[in-house]
Amino acid sequence: MPWTKRIIGCVWETVRRWFDPRELRSVGSTPDYRFSLANERTFLAWLRTGLALVAGGLAAAQFLPPLPLAHLREAIAVALLLLGGTVAVRAVDHWARTERAIRLGEELPASRFPAVLALAVGLGAVLLVIAVLARAIGGR
Amino acid sequence: MTVGPGPAGDPGLQPERTRLAWRRSLLALTAVTVLTVRLALTGDAAGAVLAGAAVAGWAAALALCWGRAVGSGPVRATSRTMPALALAAAWQATLGVLLALRGLG
């Protein structure tokens, strides 16, 4: 199938570019190292956010008792794990685009991702609060 | 700007803060790896293989990123360390999905 081949090629090209330091150094001028370090720490903060979500998913999979709804425990675990993995991979992409913008003296890349993540986590928390209350009021 | 105890010209101790951020991150990855291994080890061969895969990903990321955490090497990061750490995190998430769905099959 040509389109799967193209998607795999595109992903491979992106990952290869992440690992190639020459690619990033070829554009613009080298900034004050403190800007690069600040960008690096922002990446690490995002990565730890992703790791916290992954840890939550792993904990749900092994420490939650089986829930009354079939496979709900697994669904919660997989949702948290996928969200955490996405946050981690997106952190690299955002770091690379920010570094590029700093080198070129452009505006830093804007992103809707933090808002989407906040809404997703907030919505998940609200659903869990409703589930806990429903159980408490329902007498188990 | 007041000059702190750091080297002249960098009162913000930026390299040290970055080193500490790397240590926190590698510690978080280690904790996640422990959770993955605990979930994987159920006494069967498939579990042992998945646990080994989790430990291998952790070790690879630690080997690549150790220099950033202890401050050896250049002040500025080579761009290999960051994707390495992110892929290690995504690797633990992928193994976690496989392990969470293992009980359903």
TrEMBL record, chain A:
Membrane topology: Multi-pass membrane protein
Keywords (A to Z) from UniProt: Cell membrane, Membrane, Transmembrane, Transmembrane helix
Source taxon at top rank: Bacteria
Subcellular location field: Cell membrane
Entry keyword annotation includes Manganese: no
Cell membrane is among the record's keywords: yes
Transmembrane segments: 43-63, 75-92, 113-137
Pfam family, one: DUF202
Residues annotated as domain DUF202: 34-101
PANTHER family (alphabetical): DUF202 DOMAIN-CONTAINING PROTEIN, FGR18P
Protein name stated in the entry: YidH family protein
Taxonomic path: Bacteria, Bacillati, Actinomycetota, Actinomycetes, Micromonosporales
Automatic annotation (TrEMBL), chain B:
Domain DUF202 as annotated: residue spans: 10-69
Localization in the cell: Endomembrane system
Swiss-Prot/TrEMBL keywords: Membrane, Transmembrane, Transmembrane helix
Membrane protein topology class: Multi-pass membrane protein
One Gene Ontology cellular component: endomembrane system
Protein name, as recorded: DUF202 domain-containing protein
Sequence intervals crossing the membrane: 20-41, 48-69, 81-101
